[in-house]
Amino acid sequence: MVVYTAYNAPEAHIVAGRLESEGIPALVHQMPGAGAIGVTIGRLGEVTVLVRAEDYGKALVILEPDDPDALPDSTDDIRYLEYEDEDDDE
Predict the structure, then answer these.
(1) Which domains can be identified in the chain, with CATH numbers?
(2) Do the strands 47-51 and 26-30 form a parallel or antiparallel pair, or are they unpaired?
């Protein structure tokens, strides 16, 4: 069963490694040929992490973020601190 969908292989392998470190066998799958032609959008760009049906619920719990509000989904929510330049005092 698909437990995670990424749009690059390294991210999918990190997720699979996280599951495997918890004892859940995971498989990373990408549409055959998509990587060879450099497709990174749509269904051809998807890289999925698959687990056995009996491990699906446990995998979802493991992959659930500890604090869903820790990082915003977009940069619109990021507040940047502005520092005054020391030379501006002159």
Answers:
(1) 2-77 (3.30.70)
(2) antiparallel
Rg (CA), the chain: 19
pTM of the model: 0.66
Convert the pLDDT of each residue in 16-56 to its tens digit. 999 999 999 999 998 776 666 666 666 777 889 999 999 99
Tokens of 85: 């330049």
The residue count of the chain comes to 90
| DSSP code for 49 | E
Tokens of 18: 């996280």
How far is Cα 45 from Cα 52, in angstroms, rounded to an integer? 23
